[in-house]
């Protein structure tokens, strides 16, 4: 198993890409801590699913925009499984609003959940890695929109651009501690955040035509890459982004 015995924390881990990461990591032998801020019932059901196939998982309620909650989340991992090996900053939101329409409250909320949380979770996890020894991995679930403008969703793009530079700079700063920092940048993925597109036949037809692989990604397509990056096979990768987009950035402009 690729992740046997590793302890992995997944923020926003009870739905979408996060849920798929939890299941894929547990199937490869990881001990998983599932962070959630709502829908405790879904977290409980996910833990039961992990345990039904012999995996190990616990849930922790933490608002990722609050550093104190993030510290409690990391401590839950250490208390439950003895150490932390991988942090996956997956939690994210968007407002789908333009520069001219975005309110201060909208901007602050998106940046707090998407970027502030990744910054302070990275800081807290790095201190834990240094304290326990042996290095570690911080993985950010970013987006192709860290580099590719998406008019009408500007706060989201700004947050993902920030994650890209966080990854690059933290990866350089933490390398001498044997701590890797890597971004995964998905393209269009069939998750609840994209439900309005998935449920619209014409939108889906146009989107799939723009993707060289001719289909929207499933969450498992992203989770499988995450598992590889968390394994020994990716041990020399840091301060970089791995794009998982079916070729959409090369095949189309302006979606």
UniProtKB/TrEMBL annotation:
Principal EC category: oxidoreductase
Transmembrane segments: none
Lineage top rank: taxon: Bacteria
Entry keyword annotation includes Oxidoreductase: yes
Molecular function in Gene Ontology: glucose 1-dehydrogenase [NAD(P)+] activity
Keyword Nucleus set for record: no
Keywords: Oxidoreductase
Family indicated by similarity: Belongs to the short-chain dehydrogenases/reductases (SDR) family.
NCBIfam families for the chain: PRK07231.1 (NF005559)
Name under which the protein is recorded: Glucose 1-dehydrogenase
Organism the protein comes from: Mycolicibacterium hodleri
């Amino acid at each position: 198993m690729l992740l046997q015995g590793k302890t992995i924390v997944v923020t926003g881990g009870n739905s979408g890409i996060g849920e798929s990461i939890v299941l894929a990591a547990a199937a490869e032998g990881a001990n998983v801590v599932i962070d959630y801020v709502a829908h405790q019932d879904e977290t409980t059901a996910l833990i039961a699913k992990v345990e039904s196939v012999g995996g190990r998982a616990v849930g922790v309620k933490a608002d990722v925009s609050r550093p104190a909650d993030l510290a409690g989340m990391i401590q839950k991992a250490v208390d439950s499984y003895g150490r932390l090996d991988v942090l996956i900053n997956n939690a994210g939101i968007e407002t789908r609003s333009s520069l001219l329409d975005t309110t201060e409250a909208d901007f602050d909320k998106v940046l707090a959940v998407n970027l502030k949380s990744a910054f302070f979770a990275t800081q807290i996890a790095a201190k834990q890695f240094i304290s326990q020894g042996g290095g570690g991995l911080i993985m950010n679930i970013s987006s192709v929109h860290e580099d590719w403008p998406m008019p009408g969703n500007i706060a989201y793009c700004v947050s993902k651009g920030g994650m890209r530079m966080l990854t690059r700079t933290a990866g350089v700063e933490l390398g001498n501690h044997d701590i890797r920092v890597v971004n995964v940048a998905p393209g269009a993925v069939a998750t609840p955040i994209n439900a309005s597109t998935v449920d619209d036949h014409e939108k889906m037809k146009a989107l799939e035509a723009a993707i060289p692989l001719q289909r929207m990604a499933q969450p498992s397509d992203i989770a499988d890459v995450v598992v590889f990056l968390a394994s020994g096979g990716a041990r020399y990768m840091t301060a970089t982004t791995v794009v998982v987009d079916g070729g959409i950035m090369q095949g189309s402009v302006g979606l």
